[in-house]
Structure prediction request, 266 residues.
Amino acid sequence: MKRLIVNADDFGLTAGINRAIIECYRAGAVTSATLMVNGEAAVEAALLAADSTGLGVGLHLNLTSGRPTSPPENIPSLLGPDGSFPGLRQALWRLSTGRARAYELENEIVAQIERLTGLGVRPTHVDSHHHLHAHPRLRSLISRICPRHGIARMRGFRMSGRTPKAIAVAWAARLPSTGTPLKVPDRFSGIEAMGGENMAAVVRTSLAHQGDTLEFMCHPGYLDEDLLRVTSYNEPREDELRQLLSPEFAAAIEESGAQPVSFGAL
Prediction:
């Protein structure tokens, strides 16, 4: 039987994102979410998750934006001059050149896991902001660190989408890494639906491919001043929310016969 994980990223980034994710979960459109522990609404997200016992919640590892969880003086090779993460391009460059020190990366990964469990969340899986864990160096560290903390599942990147971003992420994810691989769904989709594409059509096409379990990524949210301030991907989130709650999205899942699950089912 086909299974479908609909995972909402950026849980905890803002209160408007939290509200949208829980609304989608209660409507049956979202089965899983990943919580950004350095988001300004992370505590609220954990409280909402505690009241939504069927929602699988994982770690949305963030090494690209905002303030770190570790004391900045402990991880200087990961940060910009202002003590914040320096953005995706800088993070990729530092990972690729070795400037990002391995022990500092491990310190921050562990700090974010411990922050999440300290909020009362037992993480079902791990993924990352801006898909940074497609990088083989970070993937290797995650494969070694996360199982020690009870996390055995991760977002994978075997996908059929042919957008430039999807191709770049899939290519990076094919580069060899070390360590014992974590469990991943058979297929991944959702990158190609960002920015206003027909989400019902994308999930219907994705479910038609072979593979027992598909993860479909989404970013629902309510547009407000907080969202405009913290991320450039803002206005499309309300459109994603409307599409996730639409009869067309529900029909695409029902017609496929896929069973909605969370990462805990892997």
User: Anything to note?
Assistant: The first strand starts at residue 3 and ends at 11. The beta strands are 3-11, 32-35, 56-61, 126-128, 187-189, 213-218, 259-260. Residues 3-265 form a domain with the TIM Barrel fold (CATH 3.20.20.370).
